[in-house]
Design goal:
This protein is mainly beta and about 350 residues long. The chain is about 5% helix and about 40% strand. The strands form 6 sheets. It has a 5-stranded antiparallel β-sheet with strand order 3-16-13-12-21, covered by helices on one side. The chain has a 4-stranded antiparallel β-sheet with strand order 8-5-4-11, with no helix packed on it. Strands 7-6-9-10 form a 4-stranded antiparallel β-sheet. The chain starts with 14 loop residues before the first strand and ends with a strand. It is found in: Cell membrane. It holds the Pfam family C2. InterPro entries: C2_dom, C2_domain_sf, SYTL1-5_C2B.
Length: about 350
């Protein structure tokens, strides 16, 4: 297959790399060891429940401590995720928009086996009032799954510029379906919903499947609001590379979802051979393409890495992650063996 956007610019010339302890290679064209073994599996359809129920919270700004406070009280009548067991394990998560990465994520504890959870927790942001007033608060409710298959239960967005700051009382608000208003922009190409996880070498103890080298797990869940190139819709698939490796060993792709601008992939890819120090120099590139017989058209992509512009001491143009993408990668690096979930806007690369 040929693509209308060239991949030649991503080729990585050979260079000397100082071997780390335990490494037997000093001449690497790329982190080809990272992609020496690839496991690709399809997961079930998670997160497909309809948003319902209400959430009770209050907002306040502490002038003395220059702190924005979100008092999350409780939720009522949430959707049931596991219908067989009749259970949901909900938690509440908040972001300040439009730059989710700048202030980061806050979340409550998880309440087990309830659709009427009581939290009484305060989520805090250190931020100047003038800066806060140009933000939006995104408050969402999620079902927590031990395997990282978290399900979206509903959300609410609050425009803080028009908020009545004299109102410090707890109030009830209806939860709504997922909104894309936070990422709408001039170059809006859609939004990818995914989770990533890093499993360090030997971190699983004496378990039979304990990896001898580190693994990066990439779970592409779905994409929303893709560009529609023709009346019939779009036939999309996702490509994945671990840069600087652009060889066939590194290349993976999902199946093609036909005639759908909101495709659900639920495709998981596992790259092994990752040493912890490789996470600073490697970059996971995920791109979405429209599939046609003669040529594939680039729709948008993301690059997950530290965005330093350098890879193994070499200046590269693809190490250009946005603040949001960098924050997502850093969160994965600091939370070994945990699934990190994200909703990232696609961009031109």
């Amino acid at each position: 297959e040929s693509d209308t956007a060239s991949e030649i610019s991503f080729q990585f010339n050979k260079h000397k790399k100082t071997p780390s302890i335990g490494s037997h290679s000093s001449d690497m064209a790329s982190v080809s060891s990272v992609s020496g073994s690839v496991l690709s599996v399809y997961s079930g359809d998670f997160g497909s429940v309809d948003a319902q129920g209400t959430v009770e919270f209050a907002l306040d700004y502490d002038e003395k401590n220059r702190e924005f406070q979100v008092h999350v009280s409780q939720c009522k009548d949430l959707a049931v995720v596991d219908e067989k067991k009749g259970r949901s394990d909900p938690y509440v998560k908040t972001y300040l928009l439009p730059d989710k990465a700048r202030m980061g994520k806050r979340k409550t504890s998880v309440k087990k086996r309830t659709v009427n959870p009581i939290y009484n927790e305060v989520l805090r942001y250190k931020i100047e009032k003038m800066v806060l007033l140009i933000q939006k608060l995104n408050l969402s409710v999620w079902h927590n799954d031990p395997l990282g298959r978290n399900s979206f239960l509903g959300e609410i967005e609050v425009d803080l510029a028009s908020w009545d700051w004299s109102n410090r009382k707890l109030n009830w608000y209806p939860l709504k379906p997922r909104s894309l208003s936070a990422v709408n922009g001039v170059d809006h190409r859609g939004v990818m919903n995914l989770s990533i996880k890093y499993v360090p070498p030997g971190s699983l103890g004496k378990r039979p499947k304990n990896p001898p080298s580190g693994e990066v797990h990439i779970w592409v869940k779905d994409v929303k609001d893709l560009l529609q190139l023709r009346p019939s819709g779009v036939d999309s698939f996702v490509k994945c590379y671990v840069l600087p490796d652009t060889s066939k060993k590194s290349y993976q792709k999902t199946r093609v979802i036909k005639r759908d601008t909101n495709p659900i992939f639920n495709h998981t890819i596992v790259y092994d051979g990752f040493h912890t120090e490789d996470l600073k120099d490697a970059c996971v590139e995920l791109t979405v393409w429209d599939h046609e017989k003669l040529t594939n058209h680039f729709l948008g992509g993301i690059r997950l890495g530290l965005g330093t512009g350098l890879s193994y001491g070499i200046s590269v143009d693809w190490m250009d992650s946005t603040q949001e993408e960098v924050a997502f990668w850093q969160e994965m690096m600091s939370a070994a063996n945990e699934w990190i979930e994200g909703l990232l806007p696609l961009r031109s690369l």
